[in-house]
């Protein structure tokens, strides 16, 4: 089988306990087994449509309203660590 | 259950002010706290707002002003929608202490229409689950039978409406998360057309599938809330700029209702164990439509048998990407041993240990199907199958006006009954997932109960922007079964 759970966990930035690894491996295997049914379909002739919402749009690159600027300031304050309007994180750089 | 009209009429006739109604309902929420429908109740804020609503009413000379259609109406909000100044936990330890600095567009539209928000409702963590049991703060219970699940992921919103704690609530629907709990709790739930209601301020699970919508006791109430929350929003890049106008009145007579053979097949594997009593109630509802002059048309949606597979590949892929933002730096909480982290990776992993099992399972699966070497075989194929499913609906809607099916193969099951088997859980979404994949509107309406008294739901799926048709058809059946 092609699933290397610990490698996937590393990519997902998740640390699995050995209990979780034992529980998840067969569950994920069986889900993959189930979804593999779509691999039997002949799809080479299918043309991919445009993304479903033709209304996709972008906003002008303008500074937000005062209310939204306040909201972003509050957001920084609400983070698990902040100082002088910046996010604060512990030093984690290793040699 | 209670309705918007009852509440507003009582206020208009001086029988019960909005403040008194609000007070009563908050008391009732506390009395029924065992249901665990609410994760937070904002009593003080609600009380002040209800008093404001009473003042507006007297200022308007005892009439509901046209610009405040929901004046004084108590509502509940699923706890993955931001409401400025309140906690938004997504039922996750990860966001246990996160307080919203802004409101979702749908929430601020409710407030602008005069609604009184009572609090935030329980859900499966990050809206991932079909039973409500994957909440980090314990499952909500089904008010119709407290030993059973209310369905998910909008579990608390459906339970709150069914228990008469609010007339209406907001939910979100990625693969059935409004319709399934509506069905299990015997209330009405609408998943609008993708792009019709802004997703701004909805904590993203799978962005190409997520849609905000109302749950309520009646069609009229659901329709009223829908009219308030829908409309273009520049803050959501997938919001539809010009919503096509809806016909004002639709008659049941002459409406063509498609009945997909794949959803009613006798082959039990094809219909995923459709319970005979569910089937019976749904067929009786269809007969009722026939007696009202609708025409039942057998149709086929040949690719829907791949819908669950397709959905669980696309949804988990998008979820793994969307949830990568929860790294403990900008939002929420940090892991208990974060001080011991030696590397940045340790730091992330420690913080992300706060996710619950179902969320981890889906992030892992999503990361895998997007990873080098597997992306083509899984995610890319799923996107193509999604086009085939969408095309099936296009063909079907050239022959019929709407499509009927059960909402779920079963009625509400016992707490813990399906916890150990993710696939069985995922198959509950068999009937609801196709509408999300195709971006179509769909409604869940109660059509009677099984022999245990548990509600059965009928699903009507319409073509894009046919919400009015769904609501009118639902109304025709309301109370007649």
Structural features, described:
The complex is a heterodimer of chains A (95) and B (481). With 95 residues, chain A is mainly alpha-helical. Helices cover 40% and strands 4% of the residues of chain A. A two-stranded antiparallel ribbon of chain A has the order 1-2. Chain A starts with a helix and ends in an 8-residue tail after the last strand. The chains are: A mainly alpha (95), B alpha/beta (481). The interface between A and B is large, with 57 and 73 residues.
Short description:
Chain A has 95 residues and is mainly alpha-helical.
Describe the SSE topology:
The complex is a heterodimer of chains A (95) and B (481).
Chain A: H1 5-11, H2 18-35, H3 66-78, E1 82-83, E2 86-87
Antiparallel strand pairs in A: 1-2
Chain B: H1 4-12, H2 18-31, E1 38-41, H3 43-59, E2 74-78, H4 105-112, E3 116-121, H5 155-162, E4 168-173, H6 179-185, E5 188-191, E6 211-216, H7 219-229, E7 256-260, H8 276-291, E8 295-299, H9 307-322, H10 344-352, H11 357-370, H12 376-396, E9 402-406, H13 422-427, H14 433-438, E10 442-449, E11 455-462, H15 467-477
Parallel strand pairs in B: 2-3, 2-4, 7-8, 7-9
Antiparallel strand pairs in B: 1-3, 4-6, 5-6, 5-10, 9-11, 10-11
Helix pairs in contact in B: 2-3, 5-6, 7-15, 9-11, 9-12
């Amino acid at each position: 089988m092609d699933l290397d759970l610990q490698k996937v966990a590393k990519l997902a930035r998740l640390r699995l306990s050995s209990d979780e690894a034992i529980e998840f491996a067969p569950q994920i295997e069986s889900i993959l087994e189930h979804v593999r049914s779509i691999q039997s379909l002949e799809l080479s002739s299918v043309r991919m449509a445009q993304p479903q919402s033709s209304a996709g749009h972008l906003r002008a690159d303008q500074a937000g309203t005062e209310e939204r600027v306040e909201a972003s300031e509050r957001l920084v304050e609400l983070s698990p660590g902040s100082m002088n309007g910046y996010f604060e994180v512990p030093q984690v750089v290793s040699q | 259950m209670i309705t918007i009209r009852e509440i507003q009429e009582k206020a208009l006739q001086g029988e019960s002010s909005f403040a008194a109604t609000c007070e009563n309902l908050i008391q009732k929420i506390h009395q029924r706290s065992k249901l665990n429908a609410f994760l937070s109740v904002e009593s003080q804020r609600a009380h002040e707002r209800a008093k404001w609503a009473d003042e507006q009413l007297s200022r308007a000379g005892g009439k509901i002003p046209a610009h405040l259609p929901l004046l004084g109406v108590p509502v509940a909000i699923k706890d993955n929608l931001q409401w400025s100044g309140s906690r938004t936990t997504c039922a996750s330890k990860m966001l246990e202490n996160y307080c919203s600095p802004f409101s979702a567009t749908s929430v601020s539209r409710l407030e602008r229409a005069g609604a009184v928000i009572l609090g935030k409702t329980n859900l499966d963590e990050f809206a991932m689950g079909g039973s409500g049991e994957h909440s980090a703060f314990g499952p909500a219970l089904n008010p119709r039978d407290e030993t059973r699940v209310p369905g998910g992921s909008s579990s608390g919103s459906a339970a709150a409406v069914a228990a008469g704690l609010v007339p209406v609530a907001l939910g979100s629907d990625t693969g059935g998360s409004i319709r399934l709990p509506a069905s299990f709790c015997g209330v009405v739930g609408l998943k609008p057309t993708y792009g019709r209601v802004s997703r701004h301020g909805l904590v993203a699970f799978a962005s190409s599938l997520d849609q905000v919508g109302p749950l309520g006791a009646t069609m009229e109430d659901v329709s009223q809330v829908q009219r308030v929350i829908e409309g273009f929003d520049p803050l959501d890049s997938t919001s539809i700029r010009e919503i096509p106008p809806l016909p004002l009145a639709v008659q049941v007579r002459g409406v063509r209702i498609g009945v997909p053979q794949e959803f009613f097949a006798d082959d039990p594997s094809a219909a995923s164990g459709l319970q005979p009593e569910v089937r019976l109630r749904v067929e009786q509802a269809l007969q009722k439509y026939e007696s009202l002059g609708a025409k039942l048309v057998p149709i086929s949606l040949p690719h829907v048998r791949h819908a669950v597979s397709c959905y669980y590949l696309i949804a988990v892929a998008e979820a793994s990407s969307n949830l990568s933002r929860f790294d403990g730096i900008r939002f929420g909480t940090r892991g208990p041993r974060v001080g011991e982290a030696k590397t940045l990776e340790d730091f992330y992993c420690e913080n992300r240990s706060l996710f619950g099992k179902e969320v981890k399972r889906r992030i892992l699966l999503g990361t895998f199907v997007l990873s080098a070497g597997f992306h083509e075989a899984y995610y890319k194929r799923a996107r193509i199958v999604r086009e085939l499913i969408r095309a099936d609906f296009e063909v079907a809607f050239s022959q019929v006006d709407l499509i009927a099916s059960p909402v779920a193969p079963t009625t509400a099951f016992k707490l813990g009954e399906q916890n150990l088997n993710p696939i069985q859980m995922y198959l509950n979404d068999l009937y609801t997932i196709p509408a999300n994949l195709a971006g179509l509107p769909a409604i869940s309406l109660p059509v009677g109960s099984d022999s245990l008294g548990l509600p059965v739901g009928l699903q009507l799926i319409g073509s894009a922007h046919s919400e009015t048709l769904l609501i009118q058809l639902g109304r025709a059946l309301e109370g007649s079964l």
